[in-house]
Backbone:
């Protein structure tokens, strides 16, 4: 017999589609919001007195959840949910679910209820992801390889590649470029004149594909970067607080 | 003047970036422009920084002079004619090459082109027009351009440059006419304000643009028209970067390696085939106008500077007024001695006050007066104001209107808006305010939640001054240490009124 106190844990993969499918399944299970929990596989410790249900990712279910969020809570909420799903926080699936419980109840005004822990939490996750994506739009450097192909490398904490790549696809429509998430072995690939795609690609593979090449503009950029600072205002602490070291790994102007 | 021939592109860049670095504005904000399939670039209205220089300032644009030659002798300027420095100029092609190649690599958000006065204001402005026109039409550059309007240049030229640029600026340089007379013999208040007024009108009259374009040919038959775009397959970006084609050295990159023939070519009307028609189609200065004033070269008070700033916003619709703490680079009896440190703390306070004017509904006269003409260096201007107006506090967070909330130290534009929205569904208490981004260590002294103060602190000036100074440890330390450099934002946090990412994302790691 099923224990009334027992929680059902829906265990899903870590990407947005996986998480949204889990939301769908947990909701559709009708077990009651307080008796379900969502977990990203491999990112939490198992607990006693829980029954674990693996979630099989279904894009159709994910799409339905996305459409419902947009319709009932609004575009901004959907953007926040999507970003939160890209977060590196282990609790992200559960956090999204808790937000949606209130979100579907209150509608668009839920976003203003920052005093609610569930709202605040979603807001925090989404903000962290949005911020990091913005940093990489700024600090990413493309390295020109053979045949003028541009290679950008990033090592983000959150899975921001799908937020970063479209910015460059819009901006550099006639360039062949590739943005590598060095830690996840993912790449945003954009062929000149075409649409971008996400692909699995390990850094070593990318290096083999795109041979490194001398590039006079790298030196010119360093020259410029050096010349543009005012000696009498020199302030490395300020420079570092605005451009933390972890964004400099591939920034030419800080190398050597 | 030492004019150096045959410099490499790198040497020129070193000289012409170095000579441009005292210009403070490097923002790329004010205009949103999606990319287009057949062009290079886009613009994001919040602005994007791409790096930070050794002085901690944002590097957003390729900030260069077209030339550092100059016929004038402004005392505060490195490029003044009486300085014995190496002079050089970029060709328009070189400007284009650097901009495009830097942009492709995501080093920059666009171009900031300024210049010394070569031969005459008209000649200089025309050179700048050439560079911009080539960048837009030959290289199909769709990114951000900020260009200086040269005082004294033909208004028709300024008009045309304004249709190629996103932002234009004319530097006011010094807040008073007297300061200008003393330090900038070639300039006058009138000469500077004329193009500023013209740009303001141009922005207001964007509607009438089409008509002007139609009339243009009558006004300038054959003048100012640059080389037609060489719309060959090799130059069009579409062909130049195909994965399949290794023959890519024919791209716009080539001039850097083999400089193309000099700029002196017959001026002809542009061929229309394949051109973006940028100048014809774009609005005039869509990202608005800015200016800058030098701070500390002459004896102006903060009050004078702030009053002029306010007048510029009101009467000239400026987007931004920048302040540049004077860096003592020239030996001159009329100037602070060499080795004098730039007044960075004053600059910092003026920027804070500038935010208060633009976003917080403050007036210059509320912050300073003839009797009280300088900012308190130990406290930010808003705290300083609050301390002088204790009768207006405490404020009840669950009831106060937006304008009143904005005047509370520690509450910024975003947090005030969040408070208004959140209190519709519940009564707010102190811990909630923290989530809204309120800086409680300052705000707590000035507010009540449900009628209660957080601690029973007296609304008493001496006590609060001490408490607020303690809440600004970095600023206080900066004062004690004399010249430790301050960032505008490092201790400003949410009090930043509605800053775009260019101001806040990078300085606060996203603390909204
Ligand atoms: S006009 Fe004056 S400020 Fe401008 S470059 Fe020449 S000397 Fe410098």
Residues:
């Amino acid at each position: 017999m099923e224990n009334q106190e027992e929680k059902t844990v829906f265990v899903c993969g870590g990407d947005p589609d996986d998480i949204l499918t889990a939301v769908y399944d947990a909701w559709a299970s009708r077990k009651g919001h307080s008796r379900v929990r969502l977990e990203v596989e491999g990112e939490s410790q198992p607990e006693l007195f829980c029954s674990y249900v693996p979630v099989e990712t279904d894009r159709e279910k994910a799409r339905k959840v996305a459409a419902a969020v947009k319709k009932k809570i609004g575009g901004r909420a959907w953007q926040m949910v999507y970003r939160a799903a890209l977060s590196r926080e282990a609790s992200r699936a559960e956090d999204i679910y808790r937000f949606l419980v209130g979100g579907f109840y209150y509608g668009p005004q839920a976003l203003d209820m920052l005093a609610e822990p569930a709202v605040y939490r979603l807001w925090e996750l989404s903000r962290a992801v949005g911020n990091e994506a913005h940093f990489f739009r700024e600090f990413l450097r493309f390295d020109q390889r053979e045949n003028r192909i541009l290679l950008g490398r990033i090592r983000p904490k959150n899975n921001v590649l799908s937020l970063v790549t479209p910015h460059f696809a819009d901006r550099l429509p006639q360039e062949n470029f590739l943005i590598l998430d060095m830690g996840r072995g993912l790449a945003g690939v954009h062929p000149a004149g075409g649409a971008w795609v996400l692909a699995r690609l390990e850094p070593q593979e990318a290096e083999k594909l795109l041979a490194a090449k001398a590039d006079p503009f790298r030196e010119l950029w360093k020259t410029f970067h050096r010349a543009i600072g005012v000696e009498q205002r020199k302030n490395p602490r300020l420079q570092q607080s605005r451009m933390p070291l972890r964004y400099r790994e591939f920034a030419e102007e800080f190398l050597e | 003047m030492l004019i150096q021939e045959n410099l490499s592109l790198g040497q020129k860049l070193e000289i012409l970036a170095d000579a441009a670095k005292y210009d403070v504005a490097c923002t790329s904000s004010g205009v949103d422009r999606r990319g287009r399939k057949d062009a290079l670039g886009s613009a994001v209205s919040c602005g994007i920084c791409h790096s930070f220089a050794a002085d901690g300032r944002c590097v957003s644009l390729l900030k260069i002079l077209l030339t550092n030659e100059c016929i004038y002798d402004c005392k505060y300027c490195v490029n003044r004619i009486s300085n014995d420095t190496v002079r050089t100029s970029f060709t328009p092609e070189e400007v284009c090459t650097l901009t495009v190649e830097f942009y492709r690599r995501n080093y920059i958000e666009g171009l900031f082109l300024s210049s010394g006065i070569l031969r005459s204001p008209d000649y200089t402005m025309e050179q700048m027009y050439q560079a911009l026109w080539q960048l837009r039409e030959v290289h199909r550059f769709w990114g951000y351009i900020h260009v200086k309007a040269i005082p004294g240049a033909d208004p028709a030229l300024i008009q045309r440059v304004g249709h190629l640029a996103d932002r234009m600026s004319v530097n006011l340089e010094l807040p008073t006419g007297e300061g200008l007379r003393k330090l900038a013999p070639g300039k006058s208040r009138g000469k500077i304000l004329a193009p500023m007024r013209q740009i303001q009108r141009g922005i207001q009259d964007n509607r009438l643009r089409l008509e002007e374009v139609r009339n243009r040919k009558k006004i300038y038959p054959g003048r100012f028209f640059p080389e037609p775009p060489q719309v060959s397959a090799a130059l069009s970006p579409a062909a130049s970067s195909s994965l399949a084609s290794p023959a890519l050295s024919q791209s716009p990159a080539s001039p850097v390696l083999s400089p193309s023939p000099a700029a002196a070519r017959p001026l002809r009307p542009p061929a229309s085939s394949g051109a973006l028609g940028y100048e014809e189609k774009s609005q005039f200065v869509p990202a608005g106008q800015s200016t800058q004033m030098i701070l500390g070269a002459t004896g102006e008070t903060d009050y004078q500077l702030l009053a002029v700033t306010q007048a510029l916003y009101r009467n000239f619709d400026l987007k931004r007024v920048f302040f540049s703490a004077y860096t003592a680079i020239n030996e001159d009896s009329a100037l602070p001695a060499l080795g004098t440190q730039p007044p960075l703390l004053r600059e910092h306070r003026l920027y804070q006050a500038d935010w208060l004017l633009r976003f917080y509904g403050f007036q210059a006269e509320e912050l300073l007066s003839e009797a009280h003409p300088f900012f308190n260096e130990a406290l930010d201007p808003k705290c300083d104001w609050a301390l002088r107006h204790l009768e207006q506090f405490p404020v009840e967070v669950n009831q106060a209107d937006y304008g009143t909330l904005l005047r509370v130290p520690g509450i910024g534009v975003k947090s005030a808006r969040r408070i208004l929205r959140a209190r519709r569904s519940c009564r707010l208490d102190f811990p909630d305010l923290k989530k809204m981004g309120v800086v409680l260590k300052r705000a707590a002294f000035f507010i009540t939640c449900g009628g209660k103060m957080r601690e029973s602190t007296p609304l008493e000036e001496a006590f609060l001054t001490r408490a607020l100074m303690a809440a600004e440890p970095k600023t206080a330390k900066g004062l004690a240490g004399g010249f430790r450099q301050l960032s505008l934002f490092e201790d400003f946090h949410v009090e930043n009124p509605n800053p775009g990412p260019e101001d806040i994302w990078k300085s606060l790691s996203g603390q909204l």
